[in-house]
Write a structure and sequence with these properties.
Low-confidence stretches: 1-11
CATH class of the largest domain: Alpha Beta
Oligomer: single chain
Order of helices and strands: EEEHEEHEHEHHEHEHEHEHHHHH
Number of strands: 11
Distance between the termini: 17 Å
Structural class: alpha/beta
Strand content: 5-15%
Helix content: 40-55%
CATH architecture of the largest domain: Alpha-Beta Barrel
Largest sheet: 9 strands, parallel
Mean pLDDT: 90
């Protein structure tokens, strides 16, 4: 997308926005990430500058059946120090959406987000996620029912993709759902600049995001897609005019993307990547947060995938990655930190490997 731009005017740094009556301190947020954005990841992101985070997507029928047991408590767990936090909902049937939304409200989430953006084949094949972009009538019924089921003071938002594909019909469906969603009372929409058919292949269409923002005017739009560095984040804000950003894969194992982006938006030079000591401290903080909710036995395997992502900021990331792949215990994770992060060397910019 070209060379990094010069820092934007300082006015972008103070662009505090609000989702309904939920204020955000900045326009930089963390997306819902299936299998990743649990409470520990969200809290680490908030501590590093994310103005708002979303829990990993929940299936409506799963939420309806969910029992209040210790093994399940991490799924709906949230804490006061991570607020505001959103709960994201996905499913097939309008009726179940309303029950699932009520369950998220009861769990204390500040915003309820409807997922019409997931492109994964097994999800779309079960008439969920991005599948709804191809059936506007059902999509709008889901939105209306969900908005009606949620208390008025709690905002309902929507996650979309560019459409099912690049056809004219898909484009018409997109705009019909978009306009109808705001008519039904949603507070904001997040748009990913790829189609469902594309999944994560090819570049995200930022020109489409700019077009959508022109169409929406003052209505709130978050942009998503190809946000892997602070410079990417600044470019999207400047090139598209979106009101905020939803950082997804670029935030996994890299919570520093939020604070570093905020520095650019304030007109400062880009801070260097975190040193190895800084990385080690955050990784161990993340591990201990996970252990506090998952327990000693479950945490090592769950944190292995995060350790692999954190390793991308290490100058010897292939070696660190191989060590993280073999983590089986708390002692293994601690030994990996003691081996690779003991010397306080400069970190590196993570490469996008997805």
């Amino acid at each position: 997308m070209g060379s990094p731009p010069s820092p934007p005017p300082p006015d972008l740094a103070g662009s505090a926005i609000a989702i309904g009556k939920v204020p955000l301190a900045s326009p930089i947020t963390q997306a819902a990430l299936s299998g990743y954005s649990d409470w520990p990841m969200r809290l680490v992101a908030r501590r590093h500058g994310a103005a708002y985070t979303l829990c990993e997507v929940m299936l409506d029928q799963f939420l309806v059946r969910l029992k209040d047991r210790r093994r399940n408590r991490h799924l709906l767990y949230r804490s006061e120090d991570e607020r505001p936090v959103g709960g994201q909902l996905m499913g097939a049937e309008p009726e179940l959406f309303t029950e699932g939304a009520r369950r998220l409200v009861a769990a204390g989430f500040d915003v309820i987000d409807i997922n019409f953006g997931c492109p994964v084949k097994k999800v779309v094949g079960k008439c969920r996620g991005g599948y709804h972009l191809g059936q506007p009538d059902v999509a709008l019924e889901i939105i209306r029912r969900t908005r009606d089921a949620v208390p008025p003071h709690i905002p309902v938002t929507l996650k979309m993709r560019k459409g099912i594909d690049d056809s004219a019909q898909s484009r018409d469906h997109f705009y019909r759902i978009l306009e109808g969603a705001f008519d039904a009372g949603i507070a904001a929409v997040t748009v990913h600049g790829r189609t469902v058919e594309q999944r994560y292949v090819g570049p995200s269409d930022w020109e489409f995001l700019a077009e959508v923002k022109r169409f929406l005017g003052e209505r709130l739009l978050f942009g998503s897609g190809d946000l892997f560095s602070p410079h990417d984040c600044v470019r999207m804000l400047r090139q598209t005019g979106v009101d905020g950003l939803s950082v997804a894969r670029g935030a996994i194992g890299n919570p520093w993307i939020f604070a570093r982006t905020l520095a650019l938006l304030a007109g400062h030079s880009l801070p260097p990547p975190p040193t190895l000591r800084e990385q080690r401290d955050v990784m161990w903080e993340h591990y201990r947060l996970a252990e506090s909710i998952y327990g000693e036995k479950r945490t090592p395997v769950l944190m292995r995938k995060f350790g692999i992502k954190y390793a991308r900021l290490h100058p010897r990331h292939p070696d660190v990655r191989q060590t993280m792949v073999r983590v089986r215990s708390r002692a293994d994770f601690r030994a990996a930190l003691d081996r690779w992060y003991a010397e306080d060397l400069p970190g590196v910019e993570p490469k996008c490997d997805e």
